[in-house]
Amino acid sequence: MSSSKFSLGVLVLLAFLMVLLSLVTILGNILVILAFILDRNLRHPSNYFFLNLAVSDFAVVLLMSLQEKGATIICGYYLK
């Protein structure tokens, strides 16, 4: 087992919080995108900025691997 500067309880808590944050981010961005698609009143030029932010944030969250995030915190280095 690799040595870590965190105890097992802290590692489990960090992993849970990372997964929870990722799920909340994905769900929130999906709701923003769906609201923009379904409600025509939101289709103003100023709201396209928020749609762009939601789409880009959604893509970043999906592209970021939870395993890499976990390995970074647990092992202390980035996987390459």
Automatic annotation (TrEMBL):
Protein name listed in UniProt: G-protein coupled receptors family 1 profile domain-containing protein
Pfam families: 7tm_1 (PF00001)
Main localization category: membrane
Top-level taxonomy: Eukaryota, Metazoa, Chordata, Craniata, Vertebrata
Assigned keywords, A-Z: Cell membrane, G-protein coupled receptor, Membrane, Receptor, Transducer, Transmembrane, Transmembrane helix
GO MF annotations, alphabetized: G protein-coupled acetylcholine receptor activity; G protein-coupled serotonin receptor activity
GO CC annotations on file: dendrite; plasma membrane; synapse
Species, as recorded: Malurus cyaneus samueli
One BP term from GO: adenylate cyclase-inhibiting G protein-coupled acetylcholine receptor signaling pathway
